[in-house]
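Input for the complex:
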Amino acid sequence: MNLILKKDQLNHQLNAWRQDYEVHAPQSLENYTHFLPLQDEFELALDKAHNTRIPPKALFLPTSEALLKFTRVGGYEQVPTETAPRLIFGIRPCDAHAMTMLDTVFEQERYTDPHWQARHDATLLVGLGCHEPCQTGFCTTVGSGPFNHAGLDAILTDLGEIFLVETLTEKGERLFSQLETATEEQSTQASELQQAAAASMPIAFEKEGLKEKLDQNFDSPYWEEVSRSCLGCGVCTFLCPTCFCFDIVDEAQRGERVRNWDTCMFRTYSLEASGHNPRPSRVERTRQRLSHKYTYWVDQINQIGCTGCGRCVRYCPVGLDIRAMLRKAQQLPSEVAHV
Amino acid sequence: MPDLDALKAEAKRLLDEGVIEMVIGFKAGDTPLHPQPAFFKTSEEIDQLVYNALCQNNLATYLTRFPKTQKIGMLVRGCENRSVNALVFEGQHPRENLYLIGIPCEGIIDWRKIIEQAGEEVISVIEQSDNTVLVESKSGYFTLEKDTLLHESCARCIHPNPISADIVIGELLPEGDPALAREQVAAFANLSLQERYAWFRQEAERCIRCYACREACPMCYCEECFVDHVSPRWTESGTTPAGMQGWHIVRAFHQTGRCTSCGACERACPMDIKMTYLTEKLNEDMRQKYNFEAGMDTKTPPPFSTITLDDKSRFIV
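Predicted:
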């Protein structure tokens, strides 16, 4: 159902939600935007053309969190996960789409991560579509889009004075039940704007056949070439909305078992206790990062593990661009078929 | 700006004559704000060489990746030249296997400052001869004063000229005023203890521990960084305040007498964390107390790298 949220009513609405939810929305922090809980006084930063610096995955998988507490004399207790109802307002479709992919990791039938699940179950996601898609983004190339619905309870389209609200789940419907219905013209206007936004985005690389190219060129010199200037830092993966790797460390002095973000781009990530490292250089680590997103995830869930948010492109300290790397991959030779 | 054709001609000559096996420089990036470090092995490849004020990395960080026997050419600005010298002193590459192509540096543009003024979607950046930069973005055309765009480290640079390059392409520039560097140090050092700690926490605790600062730094080349050491563990893992503060303070101290004020750490940071105020304080201490600046030659040991029998601290010897 399409509804209307007047912009001059937005803060009032957010404050009303604060009665029932902890409301997180993008706000300015230093020179970037960040999802922060709304306080009595707040100023939203929704007009930035692109995304929060840290993806909202951090609200579900914090950079560091204690899993359990222990003492030296024995005994431990689990650290409970906070489960106050939350509403994340203004999440971009690429980041919400990423949440559905992360669910396949953290909410598997056999292994469910209780921390992730508790936060997920307690959270509503209200998206803000991108009527002016960002330059480094390539969501439409990888099967997402500036108004993609995946993972969202409702999505907003900016129509100037008003937001057009499309509710997508029952929870979303309840959240916006007080609003008036949109007129047919408003709905048409929104849908035209949504289509125009998607159409304005060039196709960054050819997706068809990419997985096969990467699979067949596992040992290609291509990997050395594309990783040559890589610094081996964690910017691309830590800022990635679909990267989820973590490390579990016992902080003995504090008596806590903690889970920290980790990344396949670090040397220590794949370093084994024997001293052997199966991914000894940036070449293998770069191959892992790209292959995980563009082939292994396709094997596992039949989706590319990238939603094209463009953060890795924008913030790589040496200007490495995954789009260019994948265009280059498409030029690699295909395996000659054996007759 | 140095003459790009002259740079290319020298790089080609070096490769063609077999003086070196590779030139480390920059090539055009895939996005307008980010030229990429590049490694050129043939004179044909040199056609892709670019150099402009957006080349934000310290190329010396790549030096320790290559065998010491490899003959390497590198574009060096003032800070890069000094980083190379410091690395040569530390035995990371023999000077005779390096050919430094010097560029007097007018300062690196901080791409974040372009975005602040011209909007987030930048289409092209052109440096003009009158010290302005023409930026085309989705919001229109902007003529920006280059001085307002310089990264802080460059705005207060003392040694813009390559000091020991094998060849210098371009006119030498006047030296910077050390008073500017002192000003920045004073802005921090003159605060009260509580204010300094608040400043430090404000910066350090935004850290996500991606270690871009470490990887961008030519002097951070340890096979195993102290934060990766597990037995004993030197600092807390993760993004607890203790972990983040531990990382930032020890990182800075490891640079004492080694940092050349290039600012590559800050430019690499995805969280816009200021960190050169720490290293600049240490650099100023080195100048004041030991009359020492890192990388001014390849022979003088940094004060904290010397051990003599008459050392005042008896515990060392």
